[in-house]
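Customer escalation, tier 2.

The customer says the design service returned an amino acid string that "doesn't look like it belongs to this structure." They asked us to rerun it and document both sides in this ticket. The original structure tokens are below, unchanged.
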């Protein structure tokens, strides 16, 4: 089976950290991804809620194909397209509001990504976490139908309504070297479920990392298991994907 491989980052390739900037990339991961990309004829991309520039920092010196901000921006073999903050003036006003209104909430982080914004409350007290979730929900409602709210693991993110990882993967699949291959997507969060459903519908294989209800057909327990599998594929080639543990 000739596959096109799509990989989420946080919670999939790397363990989730208390703060987004505290994520640690395991030694050898970048070399594994580069070798595996070669085996796949280039058909490997990171599909993430992070900006592409941030992924580049974590995976330096590699510059893999990537979809960032849930597909708002995309890089295929070169320059990044999309994702300009100046194209989102209404969102920028809500970002400023979120920053002001969350200032008194201890351990609540506003992650300004330019064309999207995420509110993190993983380290916050239960009361502050509840207030943070209410703030991001109110901000999303204030933006109307042009944007949508994605709730994940102790995070709420506002993104352009048309941006999903499903759209990003399908955009890659329309172009070389991805076209004509079977899409395979690894992800770990509720925000990945739309892409799982899309990959399933397109005859691909969706792999959920970690626990939780899912529409994915396969499951691995944690990022360490993902990294071990990818290293094996990099050394020997992808095996029978239907042999992966069922979800």
């Amino acid at each position: 089976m000739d596959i096109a491989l799509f990989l989420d980052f946080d919670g999939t390739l790397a363990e989730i950290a208390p703060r987004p900037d505290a994520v640690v990339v395991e030694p050898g991961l970048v070399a594994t991804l580069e070798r595996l990309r070669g085996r796949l004829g280039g058909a490997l991309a990171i599909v993430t809620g992070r900006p592409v520039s941030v992924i580049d920092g974590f995976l330096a010196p590699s510059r893999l194909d990537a979809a960032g901000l849930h597909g708002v921006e995309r890089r295929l073999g070169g320059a990044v397209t999309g994702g300009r903050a100046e194209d989102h003036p209404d969102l920028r006003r809500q970002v400023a509001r979120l920053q002001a209104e969350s200032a008194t909430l201890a351990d609540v982080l506003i992650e300004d990504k330019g064309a999207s914004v995420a509110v993190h409350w993983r380290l916050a007290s239960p009361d502050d976490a509840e207030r943070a979730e209410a703030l991001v929900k109110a901000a999303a409602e204030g933006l109307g139908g042009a944007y949508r709210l994605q709730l994940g693991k102790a995070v709420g993110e506002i993104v352009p309504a048309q941006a999903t990882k499903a759209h990003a993967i399908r955009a890659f699949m329309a172009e070389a070297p991805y076209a004509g291959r079977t899409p395979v997507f690894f992800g770990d969060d509720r925000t990945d479920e739309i892409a799982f459903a899309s990959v399933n519908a397109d005859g691909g294989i969706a792999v959920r990392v970690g626990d939780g209800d899912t529409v994915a057909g396969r499951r691995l327990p944690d990022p360490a298991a993902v990294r071990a599998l990818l290293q094996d594929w990099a050394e020997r080639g992808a095996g029978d994907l239907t042999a992966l543990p069922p979800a």
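Tier 2 assessment: The sequence is consistent with the input. The mean pLDDT is 94. The chain has two domains: 3-83+163-243, 85-160. Sent an explanation to the customer and offered a walkthrough call.
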